[in-house]
Structures are given as C-alpha cells and as structure tokens.
Amino acid sequence: MASLDRTLITGLPLFAGLRPEQLDGLLREAQAVRYPKGTAVFHQDAEAHAFFVLLHGHLRVFKLTPDGQQVVVRFVVPGEVFGVAMAIGRTAYPGTAVAVADSIALQWPSAAWPRLVAAHPELASNTLQTVGTRLQDMHTRVVEMSTLEVERRVAHALLRLAQQAGRKVETGVTIDFPISRQDVAEMTGTTLHTVSRILSAWEARGLVESARQRITLRQPHQLMLLAEGTG
Fold first, then answer.
1. Hey, which residues does 108 pair with through a beta bridge?
2. Would you say residue 61 has pLDDT above 60?
3. Residue 217 has what DSSP assignment?
4. Where are the extended beta strands (E) located within 17-138?
5. CATH classification of 146-228 is 1.10.10.10, yes or no?
6. Is there a contact between 55 and 8 (Cβ–Cβ < 8 Å)?
7. Looking at the predicted structure, is the pLDDT value of residue 29 above 60?
8. pTM (2 decimals)?
9. Using only C-alpha atoms, what is the Rg of the chain?
10. What phi and psi, each to the nearest 5 degrees, are found at residue 62?
11. What distance separates the 2 farthest-apart alpha carbons in the chain?
12. DSSP state of 214
C-alpha cells in the first residue's frame, strides 16, 4: 500500500487533522480490495474482522429483522468510513454491506483499531462525529416512520439521497448510484406497491423520472414542499 497516492484519502472526514506522514503510515497498514457489483463486503452478525473506507463505488447496508424482513439502513458513498464495529463496542457487524456498483475500499484489521486510535486520536474523534451524525439520521427516520404519512416519508428519503449523492443533470438532480423502488420501500417502512404508486403519480406530475435502478428529481423544491406537508 506504500505506492497508493495519499491524495486519494487527503481531506476525507476520517483522516481530518492528520499530517501527510501520518497518512502514509496508515496507508502502509491498509489493503485495497475490489468488490464487484453484487458482492458482499461483510455480513450481519459475522465477526468484525476489519474496518473500511470506501474509495470508489457505492454500497447498500441492510439489516434483517428477527422475522426475516430486510430494512435498508443506509447507502455508503465514496469517502465514508464503514464497518467500524469496534468503535461502537461491537465484535460483530450489525448489518450486511453489499456493493451496488463496482467498488474499491481500503481496509484495516479491526485488531489494529485500538493501536491506531492511540497513535492518532483524531481517528477516534472523527469516527465519533460520523457515528453521531448517522445516529441522528436514524433518529430522524424513526420519527418520520412513526409520525408521517408514507408520501412524505418517500419524499424525505429521496431528498436525503439526492443530498448525499446527487448529481446535476439536464433534467434535474439524479441519485448517482443504482437504487430500486424496493430499496426506497425498505428505507421508508412501506411496500414496493406503495412506492411504485407514489413514484408513478409523481412522474405524471413531472416531479421525478424513474428508470431501472435510477431516480432523478426533476423538481426538488416541489418534493421539499411535499416532504414538509405543504405541497
């Protein structure tokens, strides 16, 4: 890993505050791994053998409930740290991460985490900030599923995805990774039929474009009004 260009990770949230020579030292302990589309990076309840930073591609993280239902927890975008089970006091992964596009990640052994954070306290504080943001996002989603009608939940979900990984195109803002209507259903606690009905109605109004595993927000402002219940 010494030959890896440090500019690939310079400026990423996990490494904020680290000097160039510290980045080089961390890279020497890392391994770059490719994950073709559809490949699992890790599985729910498996031993947390490593933690990761995504360099390229996108991942879907989901969790199976005790009754066998699949819930999409979040999508991982380039630059994010993930799978840091030891940072939250776990020895097993709480969910499953699968590549939704060909992806590349750096990985470090979980056993190295205590030593690395002792040598680089910034890693711990940066990870804590990331985990805190994700917990806040999960709290927001729980409140939405408990209090909002489904159309507003879907609007909120699409707006968050566009903010996380939106790319401006001629027709609006496209969510820049493969995402299905089933994914949206699992993110919002509803059914595929309901999401399909909502998106079809929004397409008829010119608010979105929905192709195979691709969603474009044509009128984000109008979706924002729908999410807030004023549209």
1. 51
2. yes
3. E
4. 31-35, 40-42, 50-56, 59-64, 70-76, 81-82, 96-99, 103-109
5. yes
6. yes
7. yes
8. 0.88
9. 19
10. -135, 160
11. 56
12. E
**pLDDT for 2 beyond 60:** no
Domain ranges of the chain: 6-124, 146-228
Phi, psi for 30 (deg, rounded to 5): -95, 160
SS3 198: helix
Alpha-carbon dihedral sign for residues 137, 141, 142, 148: positive
Which residues is 34 bridged to in the sheet? Answer: 104
List the structure tokens of 221. Answer: 């402002």
- Spatial distance between the Cα atoms of 159 and 137, rounded to a whole number of angstroms: 13
Reading the block at residue 58, the tokens are: 């996108």
At 152, which amino acid appears?
A: R
CATH no. of 6-124: 2.60.120.10
Q: Is 42 exposed, middle or buried (0-12, 13-18, 19+ CB in 10 A)?
A: buried
Of 85-89, 108-112, 123-127, 186-190, give the lowest mean pLDDT range.
85-89
Closest CA to 12 of 112, 59, 81: 81
